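batch_manifest entry 22 of 60
target: HTH cro/C1-type domain-containing protein
source organism: Candidatus Uhrbacteria bacterium CG_4_9_14_3_um_filter_50_9
requested by: lab member K.T.
priority: normal
notes from requester: please return tokens only, no post-processing; we will run our own comparison against the previous entry in this batch. if the run fails, retry once and flag.
--- input ---
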Amino acid sequence: MTFVIRKFDQAQTLGEKLKAMRREANFTLSEMEQKSKIRKAFIKAFEEGAYDQLPAPIYARNYLKTYVKILGGDVSYFLNQFEEERGTCDFVSSARLPRRRTRALQFLVASKFVKVGTLLLISFAVLGYVGVQLKAIAAPPDLLVYEPNDGVLTDHALITVTGHAEEGSQVLINGETVLLSTNGFFETQVALERGVNVITIESTKRYSRPAVEHRHVVLEQDRSISLAN
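--- output ---
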């Protein structure tokens, strides 16, 4: 291979030198693509210094060797300049970067922010949903006590306690389990002692806090006993 010795302006970039050599050889981009079997996009990338648009370095070097050999240039000279420019292109100020590369970087950064923002929104939504579900699970079950009223007076030693509890819950009255009907109603009798009696009605469900109601019932003393005393 005979190399043509050319004098280049040292301020010229690799791409400017390659373009000048191609034009001097009267090759269009399409003709150079056909002759070198290198894609036109890669040829333009070399000539415009858009190294980020080239394939992996090992392939880019081989393409450059082929390109320079066809134009009769010094392969070592151009490979050295390629390595110098490619090695420092990441440190070039943004003002000197090709616009397409700058836009690509901006797009990548924006895409990352969008992805992170989307993930955060999804995470907050999931956490919010889980929080609502946990709150619903931990909430005490519904409990209504129909009878007796709080503070009632009676002279009967037994009093009937009735009410309604949430389906699937367990009802305890003064610590004793009371069976629920299929509709959630319950009814039982509680023995009273003379004086003030506290009846505790408690409804519990798995993983939830208990619902508790208290009824104060006063069993009056028998008047005949009081008079005898």
